[in-house]
């Protein structure tokens, strides 16, 4: 039987196509073969000065004081404070910073995440918003200007058409949580890395 003639350039093209397909398969498989990270270091803007959940007004003084005590507190999901095993990580660093674009003070923290599900959701940007859980220590009533822990006004309620808010001058941070809707509008994940990261450079304005 007579053998059909196949031009040389067709043979070369076929080999190149096979090589390209083989490389595509390898490139697609490599990410699947790479082990998932066991730790993720996440830089977070935990809370900004200003209105919090319509009930409180966070001062930059409270943010600076909170930075001193926030290290080693838990990272949770949806403020599950009653479940110690629900922690997905913990805070390793905290400092008061200044956002030049928003012109607001904020609390920046580094969180070490060890929960594999949380790591996956952070990488997929499903965990991108955060909310701080805190205990007010010194809170001034926006209506009567006295200590709100002892006055008759409740934060978030209206009195004669005026909304009462607690002006937070000092607080203890209890935990930080991933949430869908943050109480502090700009609170969010800033960046993440598989290697330990440092806090942003720059100081608060005097």
Structure, explained:
The structure is a single chain. The protein has 3 helices and 11 strands. It has helices at residues 8-33, 60-67, 116-123, and strands spanning 40-48, 50-52, 56-58, 74-77, 89-99, 104-113, 129-141, 158-159, 162-163, 166-179, 188-193. The strands form 2 sheets. Strands 1, 2, 3, 4, 5, 6, 7, 10 and 11 form a 9-stranded mixed β-sheet that branches. A hairpin with a 3-residue loop joins strand 2 and strand 3. The longest helix has 26 residues, at 8-33. The protein is elongated. The model has no long low-confidence stretch (mean pLDDT 86).
List the helices and strands and how they pair.
Elements: H1 8-33, E1 40-48, E2 50-52, E3 56-58, H2 60-67, E4 74-77, E5 89-99, E6 104-113, H3 116-123, E7 129-141, E8 158-159, E9 162-163, E10 166-179, E11 188-193
Parallel strand pairs: 3-10, 4-10
Antiparallel strand pairs: 1-6, 1-11, 2-3, 4-5, 5-6, 7-10, 8-9
Shape: elongated
Poorly predicted sequence stretches spanning 5 or more consecutive residues: none
Sheet bearing the most strands, described? 9 strands, mixed
Structural class: alpha+beta
What is the helical fraction, as a range of percent? 10-25%
Extended strand count: 11
Instruction: Sketch the topology as an H/E string, one letter per element.
Output: HEEEHEEEHEEEEE
Q: Quote the distance from N terminus to C terminus.
A: 93 Å
Cα radius of gyration in angstroms: 26 Å
- The overall average pLDDT, rounded, is 86
Task: Tell me the β content.
Answer: 35-45%
Question: How large is the count of helical segments?
Answer: 3
């Amino acid at each position: 039987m007579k053998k059909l003639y196949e031009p040389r350039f067709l043979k070369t093209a076929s080999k190149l196509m096979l090589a390209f397909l083989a490389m595509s398969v390898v490139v697609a498989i490599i990410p699947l073969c790479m082990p998932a990270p066991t730790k993720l270091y996440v830089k977070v803007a935990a809370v900004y000065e200003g209105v919090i959940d319509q009930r409180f007004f966070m001062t930059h003084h409270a943010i600076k004081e909170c930075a001193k005590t926030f290290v080693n507190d838990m990272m949770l999901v949806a403020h599950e404070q009653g479940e110690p095993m629900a922690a997905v990580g913990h805070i390793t660093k905290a400092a008061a910073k200044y956002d030049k674009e928003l012109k607001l003070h904020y609390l920046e923290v580094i969180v070490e995440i060890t929960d594999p599900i949380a790591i996956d959701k952070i990488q997929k940007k499903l965990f991108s918003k955060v909310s701080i859980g805190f205990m007010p220590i010194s809170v001034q009533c926006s209506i009567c200007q006295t200590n709100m822990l002892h006055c008759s006004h409740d934060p978030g309620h209206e009195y004669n058409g005026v909304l009462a808010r607690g002006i937070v001058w000092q607080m203890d941070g209890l935990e930080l949580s991933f949430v869908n809707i943050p109480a502090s509008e700009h609170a969010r994940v800033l960046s993440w890395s598989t290697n330990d990261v440092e806090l942003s450079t720059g100081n608060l304005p005097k």
